[in-house]
Amino acid sequence: MTKIPLIHITDLYHPPQDPDDHFDLATIYGLPELDLKAVLLDATLAFLTGHPGKDHPRDPGFVPITQLNAITGRAVPAAVGPQSPLKSIDDDASDRPPSEQAAIHLLLDVLRQSRSSVKISVVGSLRILSAAFNREPDLVRKKTSAVLLNAGASIQRDDEWNVMLDQYAWKCLFQSGLPVHWYPCTGPNGPFGWSATNTFWHAPHKQLLPELTQKLRAWFHYAYTGNSRGDCIRVLNELGAGTSWNTMLHEIRSFWSTASLVMAANRVLAKTEQGWRFVPKSEAMNCTERHDWQIEPVEIIQLPGGMVDWKPAKDPKETSFHLFKRSKDPHHDAMAEALVALLRTLGRDS
Questions:
Q1: Could you tell me the domains of the chain?
Q2: Which of 61, 190, 49, 72 is nearest to 124 (CA)?
Q3: What are the CA-CA distances from residue 333 to residues 18, 191, 278, 330 (Å)?
Q4: Are 22 and 220 in contact (CB under 8 A)?
Q5: Which of the two residues, 311 and 153, has the higher pLDDT score?
Q6: Global pTM?
Q7: CA separation (Å) from 42 to 117, 123, 271, 274, 315?
């Protein structure tokens, strides 16, 4: 199998700020087609320090990455980036302290050393990627096969969560000329409603978690309860049950990035003899039912205030933007069944 090089940029924290980030990371680890070269942590100061009486402090997500590496026997490197938004569209963040430079350096190093072009998935702000682009635009253009952009709205609004984290970084990407596969989080019916051009789906934990391996259950348990035990590897043999675990099972999880990651691995959602699965495109023709996802070439229209609009591209060769489209509702049960089947391979001894 020829693997697809991938860099994953994520606003992953411990404890989580948005718990779907853990599912996104596990999805990547579960897709054998993806050669995960690095995880870059998009940490924002406000979520690191917390707000007294409203929110609690967090750490960048080094611990969940270390744990997942231990569970899967991998050694994926991680680094953290700048903690505050870019100051302008061409800011390269070179004035930030050394502790905020590592993710930018790692991204550029991976691109420089890669023999083939790399996909870059973003589930958070575009700060790290845009700062790296502003430092070495030729390298980033040459070595990036696609930016999997899980952010923004497919309608005229600029207040989507990920965009608001760093608006200059958002504007930078849309003017960079990089190939962008855009997976909007928000559509005409908002971030929690279905539309043909957004990616939202949801499922209860009681459908997603019980069938996973014990170590992966413990991984989610440790994260979602904000566990502070220092023996973060040994704890993977002990959590995944008990009162707090049962409380977790009553929660519902929302997702926005699953489709982009599955599509990056050239898989589709299809019904097999075993049930709904994310299967390689080459095998989907033999399935009884499938949900068609696609990315279509579009022209991007820059609007005041950082907003963008789009229209179908007259000439696909003349645009660097492709927009996610789906023809049916997200079929939540099918997505959940397929995701569980994928994730329960993680942590097996054989």
A1: 4-265+292-328 (3.90.245.10)
A2: 61
A3: 22, 19, 13, 9
A4: yes
A5: 311
A6: 0.95
A7: 22, 9, 35, 38, 35
CA distances from 73 to 227, 278, 342, 346, 350 (A): 22, 23, 17, 10, 12
Per-residue pLDDT reduced to its tens digit, 85-144: 999 999 999 999 999 999 999 999 999 999 999 999 999 999 999 999 999 999 999 999
Could you write out the three-class secondary structure of the chain? CCCEEEEEEECCEECCCCCHHHHHHHHHHHCCCEEEEEEEECCCHHHHHCCCCCCCCCEECHHHHHHHHHHHCCCCCEEECCCCCCCCCCCCCCCCCHHHCHHHHHHHHHHHHCCCCEEEEEECCCHHHHHHHHHCHHHHHHHEEEEEECCCECCCCCCCHHHHHCHHHHHHHHCCCCCEEECCCEECCECCCCCCCCCCEEEEHHHHCCCCCHHHHHHHHHHHCCCCCCCCCHHHHCCCCCHHHHHHCCCEEEECCHHHHHHHCCEEEEEECCEEEEEEHHHHCCCCEEECEEEEEEEEEECHHHCEEEEECCCHHHCCEEEEEECCCCCHHHHHHHHHHHHCCCCCCC
Average of per-residue pLDDT values in the chain: 91
End-to-end CA, the chain:
20
231 touches 289 (CB < 8 A):
no
206 against 19, higher pLDDT: 206
Output the CA–CA distances (angstroms, integers) from residue 36 to 73, 256, 296, 344, in the order listed. 13, 20, 25, 19
Could you give phi then psi for residue 33, rounded to 5 degrees? -70, -20
Torsion of CA 261, 281, 177, 152, to 10 degrees: -40
- Between CA 13 and CA 10 the distance in angstroms is 9
pLDDT in tens, 89-103: 999 999 999 999 999
User: What is the amino acid identity at position 296?
Assistant: E
Q: Are 162 and 191 in contact (CB under 8 A)?
A: no
Which residues are CB-neighbours of 203 under 8 A, at least 6 positions away?
Answer: 252, 253, 255, 332, 333, 335, 336, 339
